[in-house]
Amino acid sequence: MGEKAAEMLRVVAADLHIHTCLSPCGDLDMTPTKIVRQALEKNLAMIAVTDHNSAENITALIAAARETDLFIVPGMEVTTSEEAHIVALFDKVESALSMQALIYDSLQAGENNEDVFGIQVVANEFDEVENINKRLLIGATELSVARVVEAIHDRQGLAIAAHIDRESFSVVGQLGFIPEDLALDAIEISRHMTLSDARARFKEYEKFPFITSSDAHFLDEIAVSPTRFQLARPDMAELRMALAGREGRRVLGIDD
To answer: Residue 200's closest CA among 256, 145, 253?
Structure first.
């Protein structure tokens, strides 16, 4: 049975950190249909929608991808009180929206300055403007790193430390280290470093699975640094198993 299951596994390319036009620093071309089209052109099988402190464009992305084979992961990039970024990935849109409610209740007060940070567009599946989000999505929340990870797990999500090789807005950059008791599901490396270099630089965190993502804010950045997984199919259950290294599912290295 194990050998038969292993034969059914395949290589799946995923980009698990993509912003839309909702993120204040996201390009206005990062609309649902354009993101889906670019992801498919780059041969991605799975992408995660991870706007800053919001999940309002997830439903539109899922609808835009409905007639394709692209799997959309509901997600969010949360800014903690320490100004560290944590990528949250969920099985269900409802879980992402529940996380959004918590984030909105704890988000830094103030209104987005469109001239400084950019417009925050809530779009529909046809790339039409549905609303303009006025919240200060670029700001930090009142939630600590530990509380954010706990809240993600309370909603059965995956918590990933974003771009830990960056000096700013990463857990390592803001805290100087990853707390021993922080129950992360993975560590993300930015597109500016290879996985092999990251494993050499961050040997103390070898207990965590390492992934790479684009952190795309522009269409041409999508899939510049994807992670390849060995999965039976592109979905959250398979991704969860791969990060845990179970039943033959795993994160693939450059030599695999």
So the answer is: 253
In the predicted structure, residue 38 carries a pLDDT above the cut 50 = yes
Q: Cα–Cα distance between 231 and 49 in angstroms, integer?
A: 20
pTM: predicted TM-score of the whole model, two decimal places: 0.94
Is residue 256, in this structure, part of any structural domain at all?
no
Place of tokens 């290295």: 253
Q: Given a cut of 90, is residue 189 above it in pLDDT?
A: yes
CATH number assigned to the domain comprising residue 141: 3.20.20.140
- Model pLDDT for residues 116-164, shown as the tens digit of each residue: 999 999 999 999 999 999 999 999 999 999 999 999 999 999 999 999 9
d(CA 178, CA 112): 31
- E strand or H helix at 161, and its extent? strand 158-161
Q: Give residue 162's domain range.
A: 2-251
Percent of the chain clearing pLDDT 90 (strictly above): 91
Token digits for 215? 């952190």
User: 136-167: b or e for each residue (b if 16 or more CB lie within 10 Å)?
Assistant: bbbbbbebebebbbebbeebebbbbbbbbbbe
The letter for the amino acid at 207 is K
Q: Tell me phi and psi for residue 215, to 5 degrees.
A: 55, 40
